[in-house]
Amino acid sequence: MDKKIETAFVLLHDTLEAKNADYGNSAFAPPLLCPGLTARQGILVRMSDKIQRLLHLTGGGHHAVKDESVEDTMLDLAGYIVLYFAGKEREPDDGTTDYC
Q1: What pLDDT is recorded for position 78?
Q2: Does residue 84 fall inside a structural domain?
Q3: More confident call, 77 vs 30
Q4: Could you say which DSSP state residue 67 is in?
């Protein structure tokens, strides 16, 4: 494997491990304020928030969040994508779509 790709995977892994230590397995639970959503739907909502942040950060607007960069946001988004697929095994497949 290319060393740069391997380094990126290690960074993503380390970030997911650190955030899991900070937040626990909360990504795999239904959102507290929207208990009708599945955990995977909650992850999609979080991904949507990160995409909105990316649009803001790359659109030349004022950066209201201190120390938030495009790279940080992309890393968070990549982490949510991994969690989305990891969560697939945790929810029963009832044949319906889990898109919002």
Answers
A1: 97
A2: yes
A3: 77
A4: T
- Three-class DSSP category at 47: helix
46 contacts 80 by C-beta, under 8 angstroms: yes
Residue 63 domain boundaries: 3-27+34-90
pTM attached to this predicted model: 0.80
Q: Which residue has the tokens 């120390």?
A: 67
Report the number of distinct structural domains present in the chain. 1
**Per-residue confidence at 56, pLDDT binned at 50, 70, 90?**
confident
Distance from C-alpha of 49 to C-alpha of 68, rounded to nearest angstrom: 13
Examine residue 77 and state whether it is found in any structural domain, yes or no: yes
List of residues 6+ apart from 41 with CB closer than 8 A: 98, 99, 100
Which one-letter amino acid corresponds to residue 87? G
Distance of alpha carbon 88 from alpha carbon 75, whole angstroms = 20
Residue 10 lies in a domain: yes
